[in-house]
Every structure is written in C-alpha cells, then in structure tokens.
Amino acid sequence: MRLVKYLAHAGVASRRAAEGIIAAGRVTVAGSVVTDPAQDVDEASGVCVDGRPLAGPEPRVAYLLHKPAGVLSTARDPQGRPTVVGLVGREELRLYPVGRLDAQTTGVILLTNDGELANRLTHPRYEVPKTYRVQLRTSLADCDLKRLRTGVELEDGPTAPAQVKRLSDREVEITIREGRNRQVRRMVEAVGNRVVSLRRVRFGPLELGGLKEGASRRLSEQEVTELRRAAD
Fold first, then answer.
1. H or E element at residue 7
2. pTM for the whole structure
C-alpha cells in the first residue's frame, strides 16, 4: 500500500493532509525519514509519525455531530477552546472533521478516521450537496433569490448555481455543492443582506433530524455506504 494511503487508512489525516505530513519529514519507515508518498509499506514496515508507531489501520468509523456555536471544526486547539473532536469524546480514535463550519455556524458536521472517505466528501469535483437554513437580517427580494440560484460574484470567483428555497419572510434554505470558506455567508452578503444565524441541516444524504446540539451518533454501515454513493 502506498505510504500516503496507509496514513489515511490509519486515521492519521486525510490523504491530502497526509501528503503534507510526509513532505514535512514527520514520517519514518524502519527508522528512516521518508518523503515519498508513493513508497510501498505494510504493517510490518515500522511506520511512525512524529516518532509514534502506527499499529495499522484502525476500524474505520464515521460520526455525525450537531455542532453548537462557538465550537471549532478542528481536532485540537492550542488555546484550549472546545473542538468538534472533543465533543465526540472518542480519544482512542484519530478522528478529524470532514470539511469545516465556521465557529458561529451550527448543525451537521461529520467526523471520521477514514481519510479516503473524507477526501471524497470534500473534494470539489464530487459536488456533494450541503443544505443550510439561513436566518436573514432582512427579507430577500425575488431578484436576489434568482441571483443566488444562478450564481453570484465573490472575491475568489463566481459561485456555482445553488438551490434556494424561501421558507419565510426572513428565512431561506440554500443548498450548495462547493465548499469555500464562509461561502453561504458571503453569498448572502453579495446580494446586500446579512446572515443572523446559520445552521447546516443536511450533508449529502444525511439529515440533522432531532439530534440535540452537542450530541453525536455513529453512522451505520448503510449510512456510510450512502455517503460513498453521494461522492461517486
């Protein structure tokens, strides 16, 4: 197995992040630093990251968490602020979040130790849909809804068409297939409005449902299979 894939399957990081870890010289094989992500390894190769031996692939798992406001979408924080991984409370697993939500956004975030799955769910080419409930400062005009649906110009380029449904005078539901930083907030600002609160209610085929804020649940094998299909 290629070294980068071995790290991802061992739950160290996603495949793209694992490439950076290897390039930084943090990985040794049989005591020697290796910077080639394509080197063949197996459980008998003596792979270590930062001096810590990897026992081999962990059982691959995935969790759905209802992220509260103020919690960071990272595995750990040097300032000791709460993180999504800390809320799941599975210290024995090397979980990391699939993509990110900004600190004040709530709702669905996935965590896994399956680097291949995480990569497929976040890579732009797979266009996995994500749905948000958006409370607005003021009502959106029909023409602004149309602009959001067809795409708006942001500083990093135009957005792809989005699905936008009006739920009430100051609430809309937006489904996007991209994953840019703070994208929904910036889209709303691009049409002259402001987000008051933002909650992700769906990631691919998975819905938030009645899961309480701060609570998490392990995904079933069927749900993981559905996620993989969504990224095909």
1. helix 3-9
2. 0.78
